[in-house]
Design goal:
Distance between the termini: 141 Å
Radius of gyration: 33 Å
Strand order of the largest sheet: 23-22-21-20-19-18-24-25-26
Number of strands: 26
Oligomer: single chain
Helix content: 40-55%
Strand content: 15-25%
Structural class: alpha+beta
Shape: globular
Largest sheet: 9 strands, mixed
Length: 984
């Protein structure tokens, strides 16, 4: 036979074998790659001797054939790890290849991800009508219960992402993907389903994930199937952009290696569901995944819990002893002793598994685990002490957790509501660096790329939600070491600040780890940020959505069993779209506050628009300066500021100063883009031009007065290895420009807040702890006088407590952040009241009147405290203003706590006329004086009535009362009640 005949015979034999052993859809999905099929048909036999057969290797696609052996997919995807897969097809033959023991595996990978911009701006690229009609017909026939109003929008998204897929796939296949996409959206970004096939014992698994992990996710999913004994015969996976973030749509045809066919609600499916959903929480780079999960030592769910244990123990122990309890130290404690880690997991499961909990079993296991920890010894004393402390911390965490969403199936983050009593169990060795005060609640959150806490100091609490982005490994280690303490301090400060309102103080702080991303991956950073925040708010609602006070989700075992109204506010690294999503989710899922969980939404009081925080700052400034004999509305004075003209606090403070003070000189402004120093005062007209719309680098240097100058952080340039920054100085002859080194720039920029002389200093922006124990003395001039006599803290924690003490002892008057910038949170409080008592339509129709009333309240609250601080300072000149501020907060909060408990015990009196008047006095006049609305106060949640009464009465007792006369009145009433009798 000729060579051509032999070749035709081989090709024909391979073709017959392929047609028999490969699923028909394999050929459908490869019909756009005829050359690849030809190579496979011709060269398949070479796989007896070669590891792989390359069928296509192009810029945007890679197709190969290989023997199906363990690790083949890992090896393949590992080779293209830096490339983003837009489509993956994996197919296996039914039987081994001729003359071999292994089946054939075909891998088709495409790398043609479309960006959000391409999808959002894909105008004119419409789905052809005939293709659309065929897919729509199959969609309504196969999925009659699915809504159709979104059909065209979703189909167009798939088309814009992968036109070829839509063209070559059977209409039924595209309809299936569209339904999966829709189900994913309806399920909050996660959906899993299984459909047993009629022949061959095969089942189709459908898995949708919104905003999936970008690295190694497909590998992780395939590892789950492999570990659970599910052979993947075929897989078709699309990763698309929906215009905001990626979306994973996977179809897997699986067959159990042993046992019965995979069916919905079977034990196998429940386990698969738990493991696949846990891929959103379990990071493949974690030691527990690498060392235990991939080796089938522990499940993915248990590994995620151990990782949460690690993050909790590290962040609670490291803030005071970072050298002993670094992240790697804590990780090693759990990974070096998996038997102890698993015993702790078993204890946790015993306490919270809703499917069967026996208190006797838990108590016995707790006793045994305590003994195991107490007896832990490897003979390395120093290391043993560290690890025992870690394991004791974990035990305390488990014992004091009151509810968790760990057993909620559909989740993207873990949440744990904890009794703060665990802090006392840790002891002063680990808590000495925290402010004195015990929180009301602590909630811990853990997800794949981050973790964090919500710490609240009263039952009803509000405070901002910030996310710290760690872009390097050092950033992550340092910030995670200090995360708990930072959160605690911020929440405690917020509690001092919230003294005038019915909500106590709280703060939520998360850390996002993006250290593995490169500079070009900033889109992925945003996606991770959204993923973390979206997962955490769902986890929050899992445990805090209640029915009759008990967690509504039956998978949440609730040992607390009370409703908890927690108000969140947007803070650092929270985008508007997330703010709106949080509000919608809260309302949709039935949280007690509805969309009132989050302020500054579309229907709310925009802080920057109305300058609510700055109103309090400037009010404090006016009253304090008047104490020194300076009438800011009439007399000339000078001011220096940090924070730029486009910032909320600084920008609105400048606006108010320019509006109210005709003779003010703004001598210094610093923001992230530039510094402006002009001892004659920044040009009012030029400053007004950019106010609340542009950063400081938009200020025209030509408008400087002679001697004034600007330093520009933006627009730097390089000369060889030197980075240079622009400095512009206004001289009598005009503007002169020079370029200075980074060292010169940094030194001069950092020195300006200390050295520029002014009557008033308003830190309205900048990093916390800018003035501290190491540099506070620089605030004084050569003759010993301060560079500013008055400091009004518009920014939080700009000055450390120790530096505040030293500055005041040397004659500076400081009004601290918890007093001076409190009006922002007060405004947010009144947003929530509006949300509870008005419909959106009513609020929008009367918004300006309502906001005008709120602004009056804000100015009064600021003025009340400023005057009281200065009054007490005059009465006792040795007292420092910041100490007086702290004592005022403590007095009001003490009254609040006592009154709140009183009304909890006597709820029936809250709406009696006397107490109803107190509630109405707390409300804006628009509500209190309008009978249509003031009748609704009875609809407020009971805890809100207690809290409003406690806040209004408690603050009035301090602001309006007199300590001596009040005490005298108390003594007289007491004597009259307890010593009745006839007067002599």
């Amino acid at each position: 036979m000729s060579n051509q005949g032999v070749e035709e015979s081989v090709n024909g034999g391979n073709q017959s074998w392929l047609e028999k052993e490969m699923h028909p859809y394999f050929f459908v999905s490869m019909k756009d790659e005829p050359e690849a099929i030809d190579i496979l048909r011709r060269e398949m036999g070479t796989l007896r001797h070669n590891r792989r057969l390359i069928l296509a290797d192009r810029e945007k696609s890679f197709i190969q054939a290989m023997a199906n052996v363990p690790g083949s997919l890992y090896d393949s995807i590992g080779r293209v790890r830096e490339r983003e897969i837009s489509y993956a097809m994996i197919a296996h033959s039914e039987s081994p290849m001729p003359g071999m023991q292994q089946t054939l595996e075909i891998q088709r990978l495409e790398f043609d991800r479309k960006s959000n911009h391409e999808v959002l701006n894909g105008k004119g690229n419409e789905v052809p009508a005939d293709i659309r009609e065929r897919i729509y017909g199959d969609f309504i026939r196969e999925y009659p219960a699915s809504p159709t109003e979104d059909f065209d929008r979703l189909l167009r998204i798939i088309w814009l992402n992968n036109e070829s897929y839509v063209r070559i796939s059977p209409p039924a296949r595209v309809a299936q993907i569209l339904n999966l996409y829709q189900m994913g959206n309806q399920g909050g970004g996660l959906h899993l389903d299984v459909e047993p096939m009629e022949t061959g014992g095969e089942s189709r698994v459908l898995f949708a994930v919104a905003n999936p992990p970008q690295k190694d996710f497909l590998l992780q999913v395939m590892e789950v199937f492999n570990r659970l004994g599910l052979a993947v015969n075929r897989a078709y996976c699309l990763t698309i952009s929906n215009g905001t973030h990626p979306y994973f749509l996977g179809t897997f045809y699986v067959r159990p290696r042993g046992g019965s066919q995979l069916e919905k609600n079977s034990d196998s499916f429940v386990r698969l569901q738990g493991e696949l959903y846990t891929t959103q929480i379990l990071n493949v780079s974690s030691p527990t995944y690498r060392e235990f999960v991939t080796r089938d030592v522990i499940s993915g769910e248990d590994a995620a819990l151990i990782n949460a244990f690690t993050a909790f123990c590290h962040s609670n122990l490291a803030h005071n002893q970072p050298d002993r309890f670094g992240l790697e130290d804590v990780q090693d404690a759990f990974t070096s002793h998996p038997e102890i880690a698993l015993q702790l997991v078993k204890l946790f499961r015993s306490r919270f598994d809703p499917r069967g909990r026996e208190s006797a079993d838990y108590e016995a296991l707790l006793a045994a685990t305590r003994q195991t920890v107490a007896d832990y010894s490897t003979g390395h004393r120093y290391l043993d002490d560290i690890r025992r402390a870690i394991f004791r911390c974990c035990l305390s965490f488990i014992r004091n957790t009151l509810k968790t969403n760990f057993f909620v199936v559909v989740k993207q983050a873990l949440s744990f509501r904890i009794d703060p009593a665990y802090l006392a169990e840790l002891g002063p060795d680990f808590t000495a660096d925290l402010p004195e005060g015990t929180p009301f609640r602590i909630t811990f959150f853990f997800s794949r790329f981050g973790f964090g806490y919500h710490i609240g100091f009263s039952d009803i609490a509000r405070g901002g939600w910030r996310t710290v982005i760690a872009r390097t490994k050092d950033d992550f280690v340092t910030n995670s070491n200090n995360l708990f303490r930072e959160n605690f301090v911020l929440a405690f400060t917020q509690h001092l600040k919230n003294k005038d309102i019915y909500e106590g103080g709280s703060k939520m702080v998360l850390i996002l780890n993006t250290a593995d991303l490169k500079a070009r991956d900033r889109d992925q950073e945003t996606w991770r940020l959204y993923k973390l925040q979206y997962g955490v708010i769902h986890a929050f609602l899992d445990i805090y959505v209640t029915e009759n006070g008990i967690a509504k989700n039956p998978a949440v075992v609730d040992y607390y069993r009370e409703e908890e109204p927690i108000e969140l506010g947007p803070d650092e690294n929270m985008h508007d779209s997330v703010i709106e999503a949080v509000a919608r989710l809260s309302k949709k899922r039935g949280y007690i506050l509805g969309n009132g969980i989050m302020s500054s939404k579309e229907v709310g009081i925009n802080h920057k628009e109305y300058g609510v925080t700055s109103l309090g700052v400037v009010t404090f400034a006016e009253i304090t300066m008047a104490e020194l004999g300076i009438d800011m509305r009439q007399a000339p004075y000078s001011v220096k500021m940090t924070g730029g003209p486009n910032g909320d606090v600084a920008g609105n403070a400048m606006r108010l100063l320019l509006e109210r003070s005709p003779q003010v000189q703004i001598r210094l402004i610093l923001d992230g883009t530039a510094a402006l120093c002009d001892t004659a005062g920044a040009d009012r007209e030029e400053l007004g031009r950019i106010l609340l719309s542009r950063d400081l680098d938009a200020f025209d240097p030509c408008k400087l007065n002679p001697g004034g100058f600007m330093l520009f952080r933006s627009g730097s340039r390089s000369e060889g290895l030197r980075e240079l920054y622009r400095k512009v100085t206004r001289t009598a002859a005009g503007v002169e420009e020079e370029w200075i080194s980074v060292d010169e720039f940094s030194r001069e920029f950092a020195e300006l807040p200390f050295s520029v002389e002014a009557d008033l200093f308003i830190p309205g922006g900048g990093r916390p702890e800018t003035i501290d124990m190491h540099n506070w003395e620089r605030f004084f001039l050569a003759d010993g006088t301060p560079s500013a006599k008055v400091i009004i803290e518009g920014a939080n924690s700009f000055i450390t407590p120790e530096a505040r003490q030293q500055l005041q002892k040397k004659g500076v008057i400081i009004m601290r952040d918890a007093s001076a910038n409190k009006c922002g949170v007060i405004s947010s409080s009144y947003e929530i009241i509006a949300n509870l008592l008005l419909t959106e339509e009513e609020f929008l129709a009367n918004k300006e009147a309502y906001v005008a009333d709120v602004l009056q309240i804000l100015e009064k609250r600021a003025a009340d405290e400023a005057r009281l601080i200065l009054k007490r300072r005059r009465e006792q000149p040795n007292l420092l203003c910041t100490d007086i501020s702290n004592s005022i907060s403590a007095e009001i909060n003490t009254h609040y706590a006592r009154l709140f408990k009183f009304f909890q015990k006597r709820p029936e009196i809250c709406l009696q006329p006397l107490f109803r008047r107190a509630i109405l006095s707390h409300l804006p006049r628009f509500l209190s004086e309008n009978s249509c609305y003031n009748q609704r106060i009875g609809q407020l949640p009971q805890k809100y009535l207690f809290a409003i009464l406690a806040a209004e009465i408690g603050s009035a007792m301090v602001y309006r009362g007199d300590q001596e006369s009040d005490f005298e009145e108390f003594v007289k009433v007491f004597l009259d009640r307890n010593f009745p009798g006839v007067e002599a």
